[in-house]
Amino acid sequence: MRNLLVLLAFGLLSTTVAFAQNTKKVTGKVTDENGKVLSGVTVSVGAVKTTSDDNGNYSLQVPTGSSTIKFSIVGYSDTDMKIGSKNTVDARLNAETNQLSEVVVVGYGVQQKKAFTGSASKIDAKEFSQLVTPSVDRQLAGRAAGVQVVAGGGDVGAPARIRIRGVNSVSQNQSPLIVVDGVPFISGNIAAATNSNALGDINPNDIENIEVLKDGSATAIFGSRAANGVIMITTKKGSKSGAMKVNYDATFGFTSPFKTYDLLNNAQFVEISNEKRTNTGVTGWAAPGDGNTYDWQRLVMRDNTPTSQHNLSFSGGTAKSTYFFSLNYSDQKGILISNANKSYRIRFNFDHEINKFIKVGNNLTLSKQVDND
After folding, report:
1. Where exactly are the structural domains of the chain?
2. What is the DSSP string of 220-231?
3. What is the CA radius of gyration of the chain?
4. What is the CATH number of domain 103-235?
């Protein structure tokens, strides 16, 4: 029995000595690029791992002959350091500079899309900025899931009926809240004569992005006004490049009916009328005269009438200030001669950074709509 215990003790001692000979202790400290200690950093050599403590220190038994040691933590770039014959390896990690391609505007702020849990859709303004359209509301159709857009009438400037995730009210307003650069817009029957189109006051070329907020968590900051959803519009700002950029674009088109009906002349109309009476057992009551009917469609519809839109913008800035100024003129004509819309829009966005804590700015817009119904 005594011999057996001696053999077991000798075997354990041999294993410990062999393990000590095949590994070595590596210690060090982990900091960021500014010298601030980083805790919770994963330090690994193959399958052997540990983490840095509150002071950024770590200690790891690494296999003898290991060439590199890896440091990783969320928000910082992974770093590999050579071990060689050193027993102390300090690491300095750099913060990741990768930017997400998309963000979600929530309330009056911006949140990274990967961290956003609500329901929202982003619409790329480039999809409709070059379209000849009096307002952006009708261009929202089919561009965001859960958003229904139906034309409110045949008039060029008539506001579209927008519903987000169906009808949410029986007797109250069912339109979503419109917020432009953080300011809620009033829409609806303001003058008690015609429906005001809030989106018609915004030049589509001035829009930077559009966010459609659909559920309670995304719209909570707006309160009960957001019961039918929120359409958040952000307009363009200047850049801090210093050089002023001037942009002008014009779009021209023609208004003409795609198809017209074939109308009956005088004799054909009388013939059809008499046939209807004959089929019901009544004697025909009319005889064709000498006159003829005129194609009334030519009297009330336009044919190849020009339509145009012009945009002129200036943008730029300095190290602490940015500006964006735009002018827009739009002349849209409908199919009917009496239906047309002329729009005059001016926008001026200015931001100035007084210091790193205070920033002032303004978003001014002036719009005039002339509708012929």
Report:
1. 21-93, 103-235, 245-372
2. GGGGGGGTT-EE
3. 36
4. 2.170.130.10
350 burial (CB, 10 Å; 0-12 / 13-18 / 19+) is middle
Q: What is the pLDDT of residues 261-307, one digit of tens each?
A: 888 877 788 888 888 888 888 877 777 666 666 677 888 888 888 88
| CB-based contact 133:331 (threshold 8 Å) | no
DSSP assignment, residue 319?
A: S
- All residues at 6 or more sequence positions from 216 whose CB lies less than 8 Å from its CB, including other chains: none
Best CATH choice for the domain 21-93 from the list 2.60.40.1120, 3.20.20.140, 3.20.20.150, 3.40.50.1970: 2.60.40.1120
Q: What number of other Cβ atoms are within 10 A of residue 195's Cβ?
A: 17
- Tell me the Ramachandran region of residue 303: left when phi exceeds 0, alpha when psi lies from -120 to 50, beta otherwise: beta
C-alpha 12, offset from chain centre: 66
CA 328/CA 372 separation, integer angstroms: 19
Phi/psi for 263 (5° steps) reads -95, 155
The helix (run of H) or strand (run of E) holding residue 201 is none
Is residue 177 within 8 Å of 229, Cβ to Cβ?
Answer: yes
Q: Do domains 21-93 and 103-235 have the same CATH topology?
A: no
pLDDT at 134: 66
